[in-house]
User: Fold this.
Amino acid sequence: MRKIIYIIALILLLVGITLFEFMAYNSMVSLKYETHELNDCISLVSEIDLCRAIRTFHIIAILFGLTIMGLLIYKKRILK
Assistant:
């Protein structure tokens, strides 16, 4: 049972990485088309700080990647 949970966690983390990186890319497109200049970070449409959103999505994706590496490194200890 623990091995199934371990595999599901790895799959969800991999999906999470791709999802958050896609969200960062989507926010970069919004940054291009919803602001007057690239130096502006506030969206004219939704008034969201897009630079902070992009940074947050990248940080979450990196944390998911580090979690995957930790799960893979300590696989024997986790599955005991």
